[in-house]
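--- STAGE predict ---
source: upstream dedup step, 1 unique chain passed
mode: sequence only
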Amino acid sequence: MPLPSDAGESQGNRSATMDHDLAEKLLEATSEVVVGIDFGPRIRLFNPAAESLFGFPAEEVLGEPLERLFPEANRDKHRRDVEAFLKGTPDRHWMNDGDPITLRSREGEAGPVTIVLLRGDTPAGTAVTALILDIGQKGRTESTRHRMRRALETVSAGHRALVRTREEATLLEEICRVAVAVGGYRFAWAGYAENDSENHVRPVAHAGHEAGYLDRIQVTWGDEPTGQGPVGRAIRSAAPSVDRDLRSSATFAPWREAALARSYESAIALPLTTNERTFGSLAIYAAEPDAFDNEEAWLLEQLAGDLAYGIQILRDRQAWRQERDHLVAILEATPDFVGLADRQGHILYRNAGAWQMLGMPGDTDPSGHHVLGSKAHEKARQTLEEIFPVAAREGTW
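--- STAGE serialize ---
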């Protein structure tokens, strides 16, 4: 997720590097086939699962046209499908309307598969990824493919919310709303782990068919019975926790009656973790049992990870703003001359003491003014003419 623009260039560079390293590890570890392409379209990324499915080592196909993976019989059709997506603006597209496709491997055929094309922003620019779901190898049923598709839709819409939302509470509400409105899940809520004597989990956002559910239940994250549900387990373990059948789950007993009354049949809780500290959970409930298989859970885990990262960035930005405002208040209170200029001498900031010393109103806009402007005394001008070249060259004067 991109850093907010006012969080600082060096911090943004560090965060971009961390994102890249994490993405590489996830791509290597996931069992899903991921192929990154450019607008050629040529293959720019080929993860280990793709090597396994197609039988080609990455170095053999990197830089090659994507159509190398298409069989001759359907090559033109698939090429037109990809090119239409690349020329458009949607951030996702299911090739062949989501129906199975057979691709070309070293051995002849790979598949059947379904392919979703995803477009997203990265520190290096816009990237396009083909996520290939191997139906044949994993024996996915139509129901399973539907669940994968809704999880992908949820993740895609969630990423758009992460990019455009600038307030923590609003972001949490939006992610919950996306899970219900876009993903079609029955209910979603986010809770923060309190460090009180009873280890409460405090609800902070929700969406969907809640009908007083959060008021009726008590959820904790300790070892007590109310901490044995998916939310408590996810917070304690810092790992996703799934109850695929709430009617029979022994650990879900404290909440079963209230959940079934609202047609919650299965649930997943996803930890919100930053800097190796889990501070809460995103819980999602489905209206059917046996939801949240490994692939669906993995996709939703990526969304929760990005959500936690986004929250941390928003908090860092808020802390930075508070520190900035505090420092500005101190600078404005001092009678001394305090100013900030760029290397060319254009004024970026002057405190009230500076304006008073120059005999100018305190609300004067510094933009366009120069430190050697008409208001500078001749002696000050000579000093500044000496200071700026030295400071620019050596860093201090």
